[in-house]
Amino acid sequence: MLSILIPIYNQDVRPLVYTLSKQCNKLRINHQILCFDDGSEQKYKEMNHELAFKIDINYTEMTENLGRSRIRNWLGKAAYFKYLLFLDGDSIVKSKDFIKNYLDNLDQAQIIYGGRTYGPNKPKAKKKILHWKYGTKREALPARKRKRDPWLNFQSNNFLITEELFTQFSFDESFSSYGYEDLHYAGLLKKSGISIGHIDNPVIHGGLEVNTVFLNKTENAIENLANIYKQDATFATRLTRSYTFLSKYGLLKSFERVYRKIEEKIHNNLLSQNPSISLFNLWKLHIFSKKLEKE
Is residue 53 scored above 60 in pLDDT? Predict the structure, then answer.
């Protein structure tokens, strides 16, 4: 019936796994929960190792770090039920009907994305405010808004797909680092005429990063996006559309000229306790432009 696939990297996944196991057992469905550790620190391996002795749970430690795409593909190949539910290891399930909600929507589309949300209150650690603010405003979208562009609003943190379809469409393993592998995957699905359904069945994103780390990870992600764009200029995200608009009307140099004048202000703001998402988007556009200049 259902294989639940969880890649782990420096996370204690026990609360997530036990919550999912309880829901599946309550529904009395055939299921398995596969947890593949992708090179975590030893302390996390010691925490999660108890999962290896639980029924219907397969905990495996990789001998090397495979990366975000390869680890998902390995999980998919190891699964043996018809439906595959991929969940990030830092997910927090709050709904008591989380599994049931997916089962009730199996006929909606070939792939179903449940969504992502963030805690309702600002994090106590002020250095994590940028990640929380961006996620809350740009990623935590209800299904009715995500449906306006089903592929652009797809993320790989919480989705269900059939085993047969995943065998045909796996993740591009050239993506070893963080960033845009899910949108690249959605773009491939779109070109192949594969539909993505959206439902309101979110998990809470529990792994907030401090501002400096979040900016570094975002820059790495933008480098991935720049590499995709160099190969396929039709690959559309909000960021590539902004860049294409400026390029089309010869405004890139003017943008960079203005940006340099306020660069220090933007940098200070993004590290502050009240970062501006508008300035963050300008920073991303600047980084994307610079990455494209590199040969």
Answer: yes
Q: Which residues fall within 8 angstroms of residue 262, CB to CB, at 6 or more apart?
A: none
Q: Which residues pair with 31 in a beta bridge?
A: 2
Spatial distance between the Cα atoms of 272 and 223, rounded to a whole number of angstroms:
24
Q: Which of 181, 188, 16 lies closest to 91, judged by CA?
A: 16
pLDDT at 83: 97
Residue ranges of E strands in 19-157? 31-37, 57-61, 83-87, 91-92, 111-113, 116-117
pTM: 0.93
Give the end of a domain, one of 208, 233, 258. Answer: 208
Residues 9-29 have pLDDT tens digits of 999 999 999 999 999 999 999
Domain count, the chain: 2
Q: Which 8-state DSSP code applies to residue 139?
A: I
Domain limits for position 58 = 2-208
